[in-house]
Amino acid sequence: MKRWMMTVFVLTLAVIISACTGEEEGQGSENQEDRTEQGQEEGADGGTTDTDGEQNSATEEEEKLVSLGGDDGTVVATATLTEADTGVTIKLEGSDLPEGKHGFHIHENAECEQSDFESAGGHFNPTEASHGFDNPDGPHAGDLPNIEVNEDGTVDEEVTAEMVTLNKGEDNSLYSNGGTSLMIHAEEDDYETDPAGDAGDRIACGTIEE
């Protein structure tokens, strides 16, 4: 009788131990899944992680800073160029400029020799179009909207060059053939007259180079 009771006790104990072990293994599996999900979420916050555990960093938007100098070499404006979905965004900030509207263009050479800046060449025009937004055969890729300088000589404007890119090696890249330049003119661009919209003298220039 005692032997029979002992056998039952041993079998019962074995069943209990087996059940406990299975429960612990299930909890371990759940904990592992939780850790896996947590790791994936952390990867999404701190940079995506692929199935091999390699970290993929986000592509940084390309940006270029250009300083524009006047005819005496003094910096009168800075332009921040940023690659965008619609072309290149140009944010211009400056001071000590003549009040009023001024032609603002991208020129074909990365040269700004004082004091007339003629070394910058003509407008950036890889498609050989005519000048001006209002010209049926235009515009140049380097044509930009006029900027307006405030009464105190400051300017803070943002324009978009829709026909160019900062990506090297692509068509209409601003780094083509050694680079290009930004130019501010003395007068307003009429958006029509070849070759430069009758915008007058070149009063500030800055190069766009790699």
UniProtKB/TrEMBL annotation:
Key word RNA-binding present: no
Domain Superoxide dismutase copper/zinc binding: 77-208
Transmembrane regions listed in the UniProt entry: none
Span list, region Disordered: 23-71
Pfam family, one: Sod_Cu
GO molecular function terms listed in the Swiss-Prot or TrEMBL record: superoxide dismutase activity
EC number: 1.15.1.1
Enzyme class: oxidoreductase
InterPro entries: SOD-like_Cu/Zn_dom_sf, SOD_Cu/Zn_/chaperone, SOD_Cu/Zn_BS, SOD_Cu_Zn_dom
CDD domains referenced in this protein's UniProt entry, alphabetically: Cu-Zn_Superoxide_Dismutase
Alphabetic keyword roster: Copper, Metal-binding, Oxidoreductase, Signal, Zinc
Cofactor binding comment, as recorded: Binds 1 zinc ion per subunit.
Catalytic activity: 2 superoxide + 2 H(+) = H2O2 + O2
Cofactor (UniProt): Zn(2+); Cu cation
Signal peptide region: 1-19
Function, as annotated: Destroys radicals which are normally produced within the cells and which are toxic to biological systems. May play a role in favoring mycobacterial survival in phagocytes.
Similarity remark: Belongs to the Cu-Zn superoxide dismutase family.
Protein name as catalogued: Superoxide dismutase [Cu-Zn]
Species per Swiss-Prot/TrEMBL record: Virgibacillus natechei
